[in-house]
User: Which sequence fits this backbone?
């Protein structure tokens, strides 16, 4: 009981120190690494739109048949965003972030093996929770790691990483598609799993706040 109280006191003290302190190099490193998954989120969420024109030619189908695949991804994102916020409080933010990255990294990679519209629709739905779940977890980590007077600035900067990832996806697509095939887009997006460098264990708690 006493140990539990001590841990709560330490967490409260650390929160107060962070809120009223200055940004340290350690905190900046955390914020930068947490921003990478958000960039990858933006990258992966745009891949389907960039791949559709090539898929239309290769499979000889019209654009409308890809509507279920696109909407399935967004439906999964909604589910992931709600579920991740609930689970992160119980499993821990870093662990939930890594789970989300594994889900959308693996599912995005497997999408490159799809041979039909139904397969792509299923894989995009599985990808959605990982993409939608990573964003709120990253935003929460940034909020916890930054002083209150800088919080809005850094959280806004983290959100901007989503369209930045989409922009990067556009440039990479422009390079890959003329030289390779549509599968390469999803293989590339699937391999971009980051944030494994986040501090963990006792050092993670000692330096900043219980995750």
Assistant:
């Amino acid at each position: 009981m006493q140990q539990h109280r001590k841990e709560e006191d330490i967490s409260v003290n650390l929160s107060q120190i962070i809120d009223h302190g200055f940004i340290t190099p350690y905190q900046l490193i955390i914020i930068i690494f947490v921003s990478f998954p958000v960039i990858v989120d933006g990258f992966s969420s745009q891949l389907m739109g960039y791949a559709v024109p090539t898929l239309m030619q290769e499979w000889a189908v019209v654009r409308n048949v890809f509507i279920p695949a696109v909407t399935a991804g967004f439906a999964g994102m909604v589910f992931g965003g709600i579920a991740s916020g609930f689970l992160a409080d119980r499993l821990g933010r870093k662990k939930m972030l890594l789970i989300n990255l594994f889900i959308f990294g693996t599912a995005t990679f497997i999408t490159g093996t799809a041979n039909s519209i139904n397969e792509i629709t299923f894989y995009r739905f599985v990808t959605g929770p990982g993409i939608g779940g990573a964003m709120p977890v990253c935003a929460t980590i940034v909020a916890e790691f930054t002083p209150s007077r800088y919080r809005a600035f850094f959280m806004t900067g983290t959100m901007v990483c989503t369209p930045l990832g989409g922009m990067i996806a556009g440039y990479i697509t422009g390079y890959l598609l003329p030289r390779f095939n549509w599968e390469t887009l999803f293989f590339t997006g699937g391999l971009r799993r980051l944030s494994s460098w986040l501090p963990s264990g006792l050092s993670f708690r000692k330096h900043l706040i219980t995750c």
Residues 28-207 form a domain with the Growth Hormone; Chain: A; fold (CATH 1.20.1250.20). The chain has one domain: 28-207. The CA atoms of residues 113 and 183 lie 7 Å apart.
